[in-house]
Amino acid sequence: MARQGTIIKLGEFELSISNPDKLIWPDNGITKLDYVQILAELAPYLLPYTSNRYLTTIRYPKGIHGTSFYQKNCPEPAPDYVRTATENNIRYVVMDSLPTLLWMGSLYSLEFHVSCEEIGIRLPNTWMLDIDPSLEVEPRLMEATALVGDLLVSLGLSAVPKTSGATGVQIVMPIERGPEFDDLRRFGKFISEYLVAEHPKLFTVERMKKDRGDLIYLDYLQYYAGKTLPAPYSPRARPGATISTPLTWEEVRGNVKPTDYHLLNIRDRLRIRGDLLNSAPKQNLAPILDHLRIKNPV
């Protein structure tokens, strides 16, 4: 007989979990209570990437095989501990605390997508390139990812690859503040068009999916104010309970798969490797951006 409800206690914080035995990822045996408990362990790694950004969630009240909906506005009623921020008449949740994360999990929020821009800060602190395969299963994905990394290294730069948790990879580069989003888009365009020219049978910058064929799309336009990407360590509502996971370049060259990392093994990985993004040094893009401005004056 299913339990009607469970109370989670963390210090003075209490959260009532209704239907704790409901299967959210049935094929993996992950229940609603399991999910919320895993989120509690992921909190130190996930919250730094959501705590000062506008949050968009995807909710699956019946589990991953049921209907879903995107939610930008804060669900009502919201507990007192939930902080919000308003932008363009949307009252977003700011997921900056363990209670807020667990509350969102209890509402069947299975994916956490965050704004590229930080709240109240104009200049970005990260550059990102989205590697988006046209095929659902792309055997060349890690080869493509390694080529992006090699190009960055040739420019004296380092970055961290992370799985999207779905089919693609994002290249994440912490940067010293100074460049604006338009500057980063210019840099992304340079990187992407160079790789397309060098590897025309592998990459494309064609925005229309129907025109890409089987090529891998380098989306330098997605990282921009007003757009969102899955946060590092966000679960994904997909078979296998996959999770957006930072990788080492050795793993990339070993041809890992996005499905290798999921809610059932991510905690062990983090205990062994820690947060690969947190330890990544900030890069100075100013010299390269200055060079691009000289080559391509406005």
From TrEMBL:
InterPro entries: LigD_pol_dom (IPR014145), NHEJ_LigD (IPR052171). Its EC number is 6.5.1.1. Residues 31-276 form the DNA ligase D polymerase domain. Keywords: Ligase. CDD domains: LigD_Pol_like (cd04861). GO terms for molecular function: DNA ligase (ATP) activity. NCBIfam families: ligD_pol. This is Non-homologous end-joining DNA ligase. It comes from Cohnella silvisoli. The lineage of its organism: Bacteria, Bacillati, Bacillota, Bacilli, Bacillales. The gene is ligD.
